[in-house]
Design goal:
The chain is α+β, with helices and mostly antiparallel strands. It is 32% helix and 24% strand.
Length: 102
């Protein structure tokens, strides 16, 4: 399974005149690959949200079977956020959007 940054770089136009940015970064154009389950990545995403005056995260997660194995995407990011101190999170609120294919 490819990461979102890799998928963005590899995206192909769906029809003539359709295109999208290929640079998908985390606050610095040099930082184009990351793992959401890394605590430093979660902290950076919280920092960027706060800098942008955002006060809410909606986290999506997929539960299902891939290659005959159970998977839960986004579980690493959710775990990292739950480990952060309230001072780091400030007034950020969170909601979980989940879909399953089991």
């Amino acid at each position: 399974m490819e990461s979102e940054p890799v998928l963005a770089r590899q995206a192909e136009p769906l029809f003539s005149g359709h295109d999208q940015p290929r640079s998908y970064c985390l606050g610095d154009i040099r930082w184009t690959d990351w793992d959401d389950s890394d605590v430093n990545v979660a902290a950076k995403q919280v920092e960027l949200a706060q800098e942008a005056s955002l006060n809410f995260f909606v986290i999506d997660s997929y539960l299902g079977i891939r290659d005959k194995l159970p998977v839960q995407e986004s579980s690493g990011f959710i775990s990292r956020l739950s480990e952060m101190r309230s001072e780091q999170l400030g007034k950020l609120n969170f909601a979980m959007m989940c879909w399953a294919n089991i």
